[in-house]
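Model it.
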Amino acid sequence: MTDTIAPAQKSGIRISGAFHRLLAFSGLIALVVVFSLASPNFMQTQNILAILQATSVNGVLAIAATLVIITSGIDLSVGTLMTFCAVITGVILTYLSLPLPFGVLGAILAGTASGLVSGLVIAKLKVPPFIATLGMMLILKGLSLVISGTRPIYFNDTPGFTQISQGSLIGALIPALPIPNGVLILFGVALIAAFVLGKTALGRYTFALGSNEEAVRLSGVNVDRWKIAVYATAGSICGVAGLLIASRLNSAQPALGQGYELDAIAAVVIGGTSLSGGRGTVLGTLIGALIISVLANGLRILSVAQEWQTVVTGTIIILAVYADILRRRTL
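Modeled.
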């Protein structure tokens, strides 16, 4: 997954961004070493698989958030959008008893439609992304509760649904490597997103919007269309996350989702994507998502209280943002 930087940026920033990712990766290795020494349970196979499984959901959401943040926007609705897509899947597969492919397609289309609405509100009505996606977060939370009747929707009568996240294609071939399918989906989404950012017009305009939106507009580009496309693409990725969380829990929990956006944004920031826009990579986001999962898992194994886990995560986010500020001062 190659680094992609807006053309207007200097080569010195390229080195700085690579150094930030190297620093994040070094931090990840350090966390693994510390927790491994602190507890023999940390490196057990089941625990490593649990970390990867947790990363698959947050990682996919973080990739969606990465696309939006590179445009210098923000999306606070990714968590509740994930839940909404899971509920839509439940309606299609459980209430309507349609085949599994319809549920998968429904989740992705629901995510795309919701992202499209957010993009339209931001691009056409000129509502700030923070407010627009905050409103969408509340709307989607309410719709999830209304559609489900405030009750979980279970997938017990849908054969193969749990295999989406919990099954292991690799484990079937190599029993010694029972890597969950959810992790494979995460890396598949990451590869596609990296290709889009690095090799397509959507990717080029995503970075250009974050670097200098007005310059892009003055060059004759339909800025609104590309901005809407970014939010719709991010929404479709959230649909994949909805499938993963529903498959993992074997249910669509309508009250779940709020708070996931914080972990997703944290992963993006820790991975080196600039909140000011115009710079970021999928690889950095994956590293950030792994750091969040390893940190939460390790502190839990060491019996650190939940409130202190939150304090530690918040501190790391502040340090990551400060590192980005220092990097931007070299512009």
